[in-house]
Amino acid sequence: MDERPSIEGFEKLLGELREEFGLEIKPRSAHLSSVERHKSGTRDDLYNKLRQLHFCNQETLPGSIETFRRQVQQLGLPGRQQQSVAAHQTSRENLFWRILVSAERQPHQSVKRSVDGTARSVVGRLPNGGRANESPSRLGEQSPQPYQRQSSIVAEADSTFTSSTSVDRSFESRTNEIHAASNVQPGIQKSTHVCSGHPGSTSEFLLAAEEFRKYFASSPESRRFEICPRASGLRSMESRLEGVWCEHSRIEGQELLLTRKAADLQCTSSQDVAFPIAWEIWRFLKHAGVDESKYNMMQSRINKWCDQKEFRSDHASMEIFKKGLPHPTDEHVWKIAMERSRDKSKAQGKDQGKDVVLTGKLLLNESKNGPGYLFRPNPLKLDRSHRLGRKYGADRFLEVEMESPSITTSEICHSNPDCLSVKMLCQWLVGNDHVFLGRRWVPFFLNDVKSKKRNKRKSNGLSRTYETVVLESMQIHTGNRLFGLEGKTEMADGIGQCSRSVLHKVAEALNYPTPPPTAFQARIGGAKGVWTVDLQDDGEQDWIRTYQSQEKWKCDATDEHHRTIEVVSWPRLAKPARLNEQFIRILDEQAKDRQKMRDTIAHHLKRSFITEVEDLIEAFHDVDKLRQVVHRYKQSRANDPDGEEIPFVGGLPDSCEDILCQFADVGFRPDKLTLMFEGYRKFAGKILERLRDRAHISIPQSTTLLMTADFQSILEEGEVHISLDGTSELSMPELGIDILVGRSPAHLPSDIQKVRAIFHPKLRGLTNQAVFSTKGKTPLASLLSGGDYDGDQALFIFDADIVDNFENAPMRDDPGLDPIKMGFLPRLGLTVKELRDSNPNFELTSRTYIYLGFLFNMPGSLLGIVTKHKETECDKNGSISDDFAISMSNLLSYLVDRRKQGFFFSQQDWGRFRERVSTKRKIDAVSLPAKNSTDQMVNGVKTARPYDEDLTRLYNCWEKAFENSAVAKEVRVHLNRELTTLEHYWDTLRPGDGNFKSFSAVACEKWAAIAPPKTLQTEDLVISLLVPEPSEALSGWSLLKASLTFKKFYEKKPKLPWRVAGQQLLYLKCVRTAERSGGMPFFLTSKAYMSYRPRKSMVARLAEEAVDAEMQ
What we know:
Oligomer: single chain
Distance between the termini: 96 Å
Shape: globular
């Protein structure tokens, strides 16, 4: 058997070449001068070429070395034994280089060859004995699919990378991961890079590591990736990536901005100006497309910029920003950012545990000129903090969102598909310090923005969590592992225990109402998972117990950040669940009586659909019912401690659901106001589309619960303890019955199991969770699509018609249906230790590690494509238990954790796999009623119109009361003129790129800035309007302006008044509605409004009263 290519074998080869020919072949040092770098160029090229051939194409090496030996003898070039001189050495190097390049270009000959110790075959490392360039894990003509967004987190670097803190050193023990999904069908997108563009085997990753070391060791001037063949006028990839952050090294005046002392600037710390101001100026410049060199600091106004209105007003008046400013930062966020720039202490109250976050987007530059990407900073935002942000400061981390570079970078090249796009971008990102805003930034983590599973290794430190209790080292215990019958399988994977005291303190830190939750998903130190209360604890001591299965990396327990319980989530109130298509397929497959099961599911589907449609129709005519329906569907913030503010865009809430609720609250109805009618039709259409397309069926006797383990070993194998608290919406049957339990994603027939649900008195303290038995050979969680107890939730079905008609599927363990045993999914066999051993330089090793992590994770996942193909074919075949379905399901189970496990799986592999497992009756479709439900719902809405007299009444009354006033006349003329100017802005500058939020916010700002003429602001009539009561936004002037805005534009531009003056118009409507009912308006704070939800009993009572009134 051939040896696998190794570093040792490669070094031996270099030693023999040095001994026989005197060739000093070695990589170029990072510490050479520019002259020395130039002299060492050929040796460096030889080193990399030999390394490439050694690991990836050894067929050419023996013949090339023999040809070189023969020509050296023929030309009389002295070797090492003949005391060669430098000139002869250079000649030998050039000769060897030409021979290697020439041999590599020759077509490959399939002949047997003998391999000596200096050039061992790579066959042993590849599946099926293939060569590296024939490995199925290489990328073929299909590239990862487009439209996948990647998220990169960039940390501010210290003065030297090697002297940075434990953030950098943590690279040694953590795995960089990314999860992505694509809905693009295979074969649609033409390849944008070839095999050499992205490594597909361990050997190629070793070569990529060496290429990166060469890149990193080179001088910045020499870092140029030439496009071959070189086309006229084309620029190198690296040159197009220059200038992405800033066209110039600094903003004029920027250094002053970052270094002025607190004596001159009231908003600053003792060291420098608030960083948020620098960020916003940079954002303005990027938005306007203005060169930084054209910006001049308004030094006399800097001390006013703690007030965002003053700050934006000053910049809006600048000529370079005449096209307008971008969307403003939320006022609350701005105030917090400025406060924290002065005081770094932790925030208290509702903002406790939150940080001001820096984010932005890298957008592909469609122009052939300028940088390849355009960076667009986002407004500052408030979000939950993460561990690294709490330790080092949130402003040291920047989250950058970008398109999948495997597609976009080839477009930057504007050349043929041979562009090494992914490698280039990764080398540029990781191999350079990116300097902007007076700081150096270094990328170190990559993730997919759609990924919800951010609890892996390094992302432990970046998971946004709730910081709660800090424990002492002695209060963190390590528990003994809990094994099954044969002592091999971990029965409580991912779960630990804590004391009652700790649980109460965690609940208090979360402001959780009593009683506290009995479990929570969290991180502490290097551990992640779920912790449940120890029911045998007396509650007097603080402690937490972690287990080996929870420990993901080692950390320093002396750091309090590693001793803080960081909560991710906790059990919610149980409520009826919905079945997705995957569960429906398994229920159909495993039914004893398939037709009866289909009838049962069809009954629930029709009942669920008809109920939803009827509710939507009723809500259209009843605003009380409307709020209940909207509350059911909108993304709930009731259980989120952060959800205390409604996000606004201009004068209205950001979401359609919140707009409908606010309109309904002040007395509007969808069948009376056109704008509300359009919003409700959009909302209802989205709900009906989701009901039809996704077929999520509501089952009243079902729920979703957190899976936990029985540490006391009370439950027998196959038993599940379920206990709900009294506030649950679910009506539970008497326990001691069979139930079904499943977990998404559910692909195998065995991913739903029938078990026995019981209530055990000794476990009654564990509520709103499902406690699984720890007896037996295999934990129940692992039978449910490979689940565990680190936070996974499961679906539980109690409906007797479904449960009694279901039988468990046997577990199939057929090697012929396992993709790995079929020769697919080779694994990346490269470790951090190998990188460290090959180069002792810590900085270079760390950068190489990050580079390889980025390189491995950049390409998109095929998980979505494979899932769609599997479900389509299974529907055609009418089975999910045949060999095809099992093979595909096994593949999907590997692809879910492909990056975690280091599997290679390319488009080419996917094509070969389809051929291997390629395969007639589709499951009868359940017809959905109310095909034209949207039309039915809006019948008789001809009464809806854009006008409402309650909104124009204020202006009409004011105009009539002061019709003979010269001052009032001048105010009317001025206000109409200003609103006409705003109308022009709305018409001419509304962007066509979909950035409506930014535009609306700017329009709202302009509307708010409209003030009475300065010459009239001393008149009594105007003074009375400008009194800021009850607030500036609701002053007489603001309300009068809103009323005229609506009157002027309600017909020709119906959205304009609502987007710029929505809150004022809602106030006017609310007051008039209350007057007609003989009462006063009822006011709520934002926090109270967020917790406000309609009661079903109240809605039912109001409905009955309406019916009675109609009958009378």
